[in-house]
Amino acid sequence: FQPKSLAGRRILITAGPTFEPIDPVRGITNLSSGKMGYAVARAAREAGAEVLLVSGPTALETPFGVQRVNVQSAQQMHDAVMDALGGQHVFVSVAAVADWRVANPSTQKVKKSADGSVPQLQFEQNPDILAAVAARTSLAGYPYCVGFAAESENLLEYGAAKRERKGIPLLVGNIGHQTFGQDDNTIILFDENGHTILPRADKLTLARQLVSEISKRIEKNSLF
Length: 224
Ligand code: C5P
Fold this sequence. Notes:
The chain has a single domain, classed as Rossmann fold. It is built from 6 helices and 12 strands. It has helices at 35-46, 74-84, 129-134, 155-166, 176-179, 203-220, and strands spanning 10-15, 19-23, 26-29, 50-55, 67-70, 90-93, 100-102, 123-125, 144-151, 170-175, 184-191, 194-202. The longest helix is centred in the C-terminal third of the chain and has 18 residues, at 203-220. The protein is globular, with a radius of gyration of 18 Å. Cytidine-5'-monophosphate binds next to α3 and β9.
């Protein structure tokens, strides 16, 4: 009998894209199917954790036994995460959060003008949810924060730098065009000792490997 590696642990996961409204029928979003985040939620539940999934708009079914909160915008995702943060042992930020939102969304559908003039959008910056959670990490190291980075090049260099900049113990890197919408992926784990490549596999297999890496790491620094 193998005890489940995350039994008794609470884990909060964000997944999917965010959607930032322009008006009631239009918006801007990021490329993300939600598959990787949902796979992490499923794997964490299989490992015995109590899982809360804060999800942007996706076409996916909630994994068995996982509690899900649906949000649209980055601000809503931020607020849902902050509300649920107390007592969480792990935070895994898989969502592709929009960096900017439209500062002046219209409450009514914007109409096409007869003279061909186009709407002027102003943007403002969204909160960085992962950085906000990392800033709340307790002295005992909880919640243990795991970030994701989708890069288009120089992943080894950018991944290590991003882990440091975000102030998190573990960052998972992947290459955008090798993962978006796909069922499999290649990921690289960056931690204080360097990097480890997890070779191409389906997202659930990688999610299970990631969950096992997370549980090893929280056991090491555990005061619980
Ligand atoms: O800096 P970058 O956006 O590439 O960092 C990606 C990581 O930060 C992901 O884990 C993503 O979920 C998280 N993130 C966030 N809030 C943002 C932007 C990114 O939580 N506004």
